[in-house]
Automatic annotation (TrEMBL), chain A:
InterPro entries: ABC_transporter_permease, MetI-like, MetI-like_sf
Family under the similarity heading: Belongs to the binding-protein-dependent transport system permease family.
Major localization listed first in the record, in broad terms: membrane
UniProt xrefs under Gene3D superfamilies: MetI-like
GO biological process per UniProt: transmembrane transport
Keyword Cytoplasm part of the UniProt annotation: no
Membrane-spanning residues: 9-31, 73-95, 107-126, 163-181, 259-279
Keywords from the named record: Cell membrane, Membrane, Transmembrane, Transmembrane helix, Transport
Residue span(s) of domain ABC transmembrane type-1: 68-280
Protein name: ABC transporter, permease protein
Cellular component, GO, one term: plasma membrane
Subcellular localization, as worded in the UniProt entry: Cell membrane
Lipid bilayer topology: Multi-pass membrane protein
UniProt source species: Ruminiclostridium cellobioparum subsp. termitidis CT1112
UniProtKB/TrEMBL annotation, chain B:
Recorded family membership: Belongs to the binding-protein-dependent transport system permease family.
Name recorded for this polypeptide: ABC-type sugar transport system, permease component
Domain of life: Bacteria
Main location: membrane
Any single GO CC term annotated in Swiss-Prot or TrEMBL for this entry: plasma membrane
Source organism of this protein record: Ruminiclostridium cellobioparum subsp. termitidis CT1112
Positions of the ABC transmembrane type-1 domain: 85-275
Membrane protein topology class: Multi-pass membrane protein
High-level lineage: Bacteria, Bacillati, Bacillota, Clostridia, Eubacteriales
Subcellular location: Cell membrane
Transmembrane regions listed in the UniProt entry: 27-48, 89-108, 120-141, 153-172, 193-215, 256-275
A Pfam family annotated for this UniProt entry: BPD_transp_1
Key words of the record: Cell membrane, Membrane, Sugar transport, Transmembrane, Transmembrane helix, Transport
GO biological process: transmembrane transport
Length: 288, 290
C-alpha cells in the first residue's frame, strides 16, 4: 500500500469516531442551542412554537435573573482575589524555601477533592449551632454568624469555598510560569545593573503574561459560571438570595422543563463570557 | 557564610532581615496550609465519634478511639456506596481509556499529517475550550433525550469522551518533542503509518498517557453536574450522586455524614498523595498550550 492511500485510510479510521463525537455532542448542540432559544420547546412534546426574541426579553426582564447575575459578580471579584493570593504564594514558593513541597501539596490539595464532598464539609463547618467556625467565634465572644442563612452573607460564604478550592490550582500555574523564565535572563540583567524591581517589571511580568491571561480567563469566566456550591448547599436559597446565573438556567430546564428559555439563558452566558474575555484582553493586555 | 558576615559591616543586620522575611514567608504559607488541613482534620475526628460523643464533646476534640469504624460501615451500607463506587469505577475506567485512545489518535493525525479539514478541526477545538460546557448542557441534554440515553451510563461516558480537549493539548505538546526523523527511518524500513503510531509514537507518549489517565480519572470521579443530570437513578448512583442522596435528612447526624464525606474524598486524595507529579504536570502542560 502506498503511503498516500495509507494516509487516507489512517486519517479516516483515526478521525471518524472522534469527529463524530465532536459533531454530535459539541457542534450540533452548539448550533441547536441558538435555534432552541427562539422557541418555547418544553423538552417533552415534539411540537413547539417559534417565539422570536421573547425568551431573551424575558431573561432581561426577570428580576431574579438580575439577582443571580449580581451574585455572580461576587464570584468574579472572588476570582480576582484568588489570583492575587495565588500569585503571592507562587512568588513565595519560587524562591528557595524549606518545606516547599509540603506547602505546594497542601495548598493544592482541595482542587482534587470531590466537589460534592467539599460542599457537604462546608455545610458542617458553616453550621449555625454546631459548626466549628461559629464555635470559635462564640468562644471569642462574637455573636454566631448565619453563614448560610443570612441573606447578606451567604454569597460570600459560598464564594469563599471556591476560593478554598481553586487557589492552589491557580498557584500551580503561576509557579510553572515563573519556572519557565530562563534564569540566565536574570543573570545578564544583573550584570547590566538591573535592580529587583526592574527585574520584576521587565522580565518577570512579560514572562508570565500568558499565564496571567489564562488564569484570569479561567477564574473570571469561572465566576460567571459558578453554581456547584449553591447548587448543593443552599439550592439557591434562602429565598433566592444565593442563586447564580447557571443555577437559574439548570433549574429552568431540569425543574420547569423550559428548554427554550434555558437555551436563551445559555446563549446570554456565552455572550457574557465572550464580552468578559474581550474586556480583559483590551484593558489589561492592551489588545494583542 | 559566617566568615563573610564577620567581614562585611552591616551584614549581620542584613542577615536578620532575611531571617525575618523568611519567617514571614513561612507564617503566610503555614496559615493557608492550616486553612486547608484543619477543616479536613475536624472531619476526620468527627467521623470516628459515637453518637453520644458527638453530642457531648466539642467539635475540636479528638475522638476516644480512632478504631471506631462504625460510622464508616453504617454509611457504606446505608448509602449503598458499593454500587456507587462500582459505577464511578466504570465511568473512570471507560472514560480514561477512551480518552487515551481518542486523544492519541487525533494528536497523531494533527501533528504528523497535513489535510484539508485540519484547520477546521483546530478551530472547533479552540471554540470548544472557550464555550462554557455548563451552558451547552441544555442542548446536549436534549440530544441525549432524542437518542434515549438519559438515565443511562452511556450519556456521561459519551460526554466525557467528546467534549474535553485538555488531553489533546497534552498529547500535542509531547508529540511535538518526538523527532519526525524516527518516523522517517521507520518508513525507510517499510513500516506502515499505523505501525509507526503503535510501535514508536504510543510508547514514547507513555509519560503523557500516565498524566492523562490520572488527571482524567480524578476529573471524572469528581464531576458532579453530568452525573447529577444522567445518573441520579438509584441503581446508577455514583460516589458523587450517592453522597448527595445520602445527605438528605442526615444533615444533623454529622458524625455519620463526616464518614460518608471522607469515604468519597479518600480515593482522589490517595491518588494525589502517590502521583502528585503527574497531576501537577498534567495541569501545567494541559493549560499552558496556546
Amino acid at each position: 500500500m502506498s503511503y498516500k492511500t495509507q494516509k487516507k485510510l489512517l486519517l479516516i479510521s483515526f478521525l471518524l469516531i472522534p469527529l463524530l463525537l465532536m459533531g454530535l455532542f459539541f457542534l450540533f448542540p452548539f448550533f441547536r442551542l441558538f435555534y432552541m432559544s427562539f422557541t418555547d420547546w418544553d423538552g417533552i412534546m415534539p411540537d413547539y412554537n417559534f417565539t422570536g426574541i421573547d425568551n431573551y426579553v424575558e431573561v432581561f426582564q426577570t428580576p431574579d435573573v438580575w439577582v443571580a447575575l449580581r451574585n455572580n459578580v461576587i464570584y468574579i471579584l472572588n476570582g480576582v482575589l484568588q489570583n492575587i493570593i495565588a500569585l503571592l504564594f507562587a512568588v513565595l514558593l519560587t524562591v528557595k524555601i524549606r518545606g516547599r513541597n509540603f506547602y505546594k501539596a497542601s495548598i493544592f490539595l482541595p482542587f482534587i477533592i470531590n466537589s460534592a464532598a467539599i460542599a457537604f464539609m462546608f455545610t458542617f463547618l458553616f453550621d449555625f449551632e454546631r459548626g466549628p467556625i461559629n464555635a470559635v467565634l462564640t468562644s471569642l465572644g462574637v455573636e454566631p454568624v448565619g453563614f448560610l442563612s443570612n441573606l447578606k452573607i451567604v454569597n460570600f460564604s459560598l464564594a469563599g469555598i471556591s476560593l478554598w478550592r481553586y487557589t492552589g490550582y491557580t498557584m500551580i500555574l503561576y509557579i510553572a510560569a515563573f519556572q519557565s523564565i530562563n534564569p540566565e535572563v536574570y543573570e545578564s540583567a544583573m550584570i547590566d545593573g538591573a535592580g529587583t524591581w526592574q527585574n520584576f517589571i521587565y522580565i518577570t511580568l512579560p514572562g508570565i503574561k500568558t499565564i496571567v491571561e489564562l488564569n484570569l480567563f479561567l477564574t473570571l469566566s469561572g465566576g460567571l459560571q459558578a453554581f456547584v456550591e449553591p447548587f448543593i448547599i443552599t439550592k439557591g436559597g434562602p429565598v433566592n438570595a444565593s442563586n447564580t446565573f447557571v443555577l437559574y438556567t439548570i433549574n429552568a430546564f431540569t425543574q420547569f422543563n423550559r428548554y427554550g428559555f434555558a437555551a436563551a439563558m445559555a446563549v446570554v452566558l456565552l455572550v457574557l463570557v465572550l464580552i468578559l474575555t474581550a474586556i480583559q484582553k483590551k484593558l489589561i493586555f492592551k489588545g494583542d | 557564610m559566617n566568615i563573610a558576615v564577620n567581614k562585611i559591616p552591616g551584614a549581620a543586620k542584613k542577615e536578620l532581615r532575611y531571617v525575618i522575611a523568611d519567617l514571614l514567608r513561612h507564617l503566610i504559607l503555614l496559615f493557608w496550609s492550616f486553612l486547608v488541613l484543619y477543616p479536613l482534620s475536624i472531619l476526620v475526628f468527627t467521623s470516628f465519634k459515637t453518637d453520644e460523643e458527638y453530642v457531648d464533646t466539642s467539635v475540636f476534640s479528638l475522638p476516644k478511639s480512632f478504631f471506631n469504624f462504625n460510622n464508616y460501615i453504617k454509611a457504606f451500607i446505608e448509602g449503598d456506596f458499593l454500587t456507587a463506587f462500582k459505577n464511578s469505577l466504570i465511568l473512570v475506567a471507560v472514560g480514561a481509556v477512551g480518552t487515551v485512545v481518542i486523544g492519541s489518535m487525533v494528536a497523531y493525525c494533527m501533528d504528523r499529517f497535513d489535510f484539508k479539514l485540519k484547520k477546521y478541526i483546530k478551530l472547533v477545538y479552540t471554540v470548544a475550550y472557550i464555550v462554557p460546557s455548563v451552558a451547552l448542557q441544555v442542548s446536549i441534554y436534549a440530544v441525549m433525550k432524542g437518542l434515549e440515553l438519559t438515565g443511562t451510563i452511556y450519556a456521561p461516558i459519551l460526554i466525557y469522551l467528546s467534549t474535553d480537549i485538555v488531553q489533546l493539548w497534552i498529547y500535542l505538546q509531547f508529540m511535538e518533542k518526538i523527532s519526525v526523523s524516527l518516523d522517517e527511518s521507520a518508513m525507510i524500513e517499510g513500516a506502515s503509518y499505523f505501525k509507526i503510531f503503535r510501535s514508536i509514537i504510543l510508547p514514547l507518549l507513555a509519560p503523557a498517557t500516565a498524566t492523562i489517565i490520572i488527571l482524567k480519572s480524578v476529573t471524572i470521579y469528581n464531576d458532579m453536574y453530568t452525573q447529577y443530570l444522567y445518573m441520579s437513578k438509584l441503581e446508577l448512583k455514583t460516589a458523587t450522586t450517592a453522597l448527595m442522596a445520602f445527605q438528605g435528612d442526615r444533615i444533623n447526624v454529622q458524625n455519620l455524614m463526616s464518614a460518608a464525606i471522607l469515604l468519597v474524598m479518600i480515593p482522589t486524595i490517595a491518588i494525589f498523595l502517590f502521583m502528585q507529579k503527574y497531576i501537577f504536570q498534567g495541569i501545567t502542560t494541559g493549560s499552558v498550550k496556546e
